[in-house]
Design a protein that fits this description.
This protein is of the alpha/beta class and 354 residues long. Strands 3, 5, 6, 7, 8, 9, 10, 17 and 18 form a 9-stranded mixed sheet that branches. Strands 13-12-11-14-15-16 form a 6-stranded parallel sheet, sandwiched between helices. The relative contact order is 0.15. Helix 4 crosses helix 9. Helices cover 34% and strands 28% of the residues. It folds into 2 domains: 170 residues, Medium-chain alcohol dehydrogenases, catalytic domain (Quinone Oxidoreductase, Chain A, domain 1); 136 residues, Rossmann fold.
């Protein structure tokens, strides 16, 4: 198998490694990774890999004595090519959390309500939502492949968008405006779509180069560039920060003062400028999901969030251009541009590793 790895201390250092894919488990299965998406959201997994356990999902092959190599998880589709579990058929396909690699082995699995769950020992302590794999139809290409590409690119982001909207909706005191940083990111756009539907005044803050694109989508009530933050009105505000830029955060705190109701840190698209601050509220979607499932029931939560995601994906299909790449090395080729934020906001990258 081949696997894309990064240095856990230095994102600029990466490699593609070939190694053994054998397993000795009597209960395990093996996936061929068909395709996976890679977005700026994956860089957040890198930045909080130690804090939130993202490095634990997929142990790197060929690590030897050097423990600095890690695997940034991705959302993708895999096909079962070997199975020691009578309930999992060879040829069946699943959507879920994969390594950027050609194969994934699971030591043990379970099935629940038609979904596959990786029950390997090293994944049991990790959030259940990341260990669950949803079944897909057999590949037929064409329209189905396009829908699956959108699912890989947008489902993990738009479930976070939905949860952020839900968090704001549950506020005891409603804000008069919501300021969304890194407004061109897909998670931000999903949140803006939800806020627009609910009539909440949303202000997107983005780079000068992305301002025109964001304006054209007509999804925010206002769009500002970062040098226009001083023009914000001082009224009750929730800030949702997808960028992680510490300097921008200080500027907003100074500008809004007592009008700042809540500062929610979500992503780290500006990971180079991120500084971990004690007491910061870092939003973790799986935790919010578990809380709301406990309050609403699983069926109700999944029905509501699923309906939103499907609607938002249909909207996104009108402006998102999917760029398909072949070969695991193409991720290595693109990685520097991804890290520098050079991928256009209307482009989604999907990789076929083999």
């Amino acid at each position: 198998m081949q696997q894309f790895q990064v240095n856990k201390q230095d994102l600029s250092i990466n490699r593609v490694v070939s190694g053994n894919n054998e397993t000795h488990s009597n209960e395990g299965i093996s996936f061929e990774v068909e395709r996976f998406a890679f977005t700026a959201n994956n860089l957040t997994y890198f930045m909080v890999g130690e804090k939130l356990g993202y490095w634990q999902f997929f142990p790197p092959i060929d690590n030897r004595a050097d423990e600095n190599w890690g695997i940034i998880p991705v959302w993708g589709i895999g096909k079962v090519v070997a199975s020691n579990n009578s309930n999992v058929e060879v040829g069946s396909r699943y959507f879920g959390y994969f390594p950027p690699a050609t194969y994934l082995r699971m030591d043990s699995v379970a099935l629940a309500q038609g979904n596959l769950i990786d029950t390997s020992a090293h994944r049991k302590p990790l959030p259940q939502g990341y260990n669950l794999y949803r079944p897909l139809e057999k590949s037929q290409g064409g329209k189905q492949a396009h829908i699956e590409n959108l699912q890989m690119l947008l489902w993990p982001l738009y479930i976070t968008s939905y949860c952020l909207w839900d968090l704001i909706e549950q506020s005891v005191t409603k804000p008069e405006q919501v300021v969304v940083l890194s407004a061109s990111s897909k998670t931000s756009l999903g949140l803006a779509y939800a806020l627009k539907k609910s009539g909440c005044h949303a202000i997107g803050v983005t780079s000068a180069k992305s301002k025109s694109f964001v304006n054209e989508l007509n999804i925010y009530d206002e769009v500002l560039s970062y040098d226009g933050i001083e023009h914000l009105s001082n009224k009750p505000t929730i800030v949702v920060d997808m960028s992680g830029n510490a300097q921008v955060k200080k500027q907003l705190e100074s500008k809004l003062g007592s009008s700042l109701m809540r500062y929610v840190q979500v992503g780290l698209t500006h990971w180079q400028d991120a500084v971990e601050e004690e007491g910061s509220e870092f939003f973790f979607a799986p935790a919010h999901i578990q809380t709301r499932i406990a309050e609403l029931g699983a069926e109700s939560f999944h029905a509501q969030s699923g309906a939103f995601i499907k609607e938002a994906m249909r909207w996104s299909a009108t402006w998102l251009n999917v760029k398909e790449q072949t070969g695991i090395h193409t991720l290595a080729d693109d990685f520097d541009a991804i890290c520098k934020g050079e991928i256009p906001a209307d482009v989604g990258l999907v990789y076929s590793p083999s």
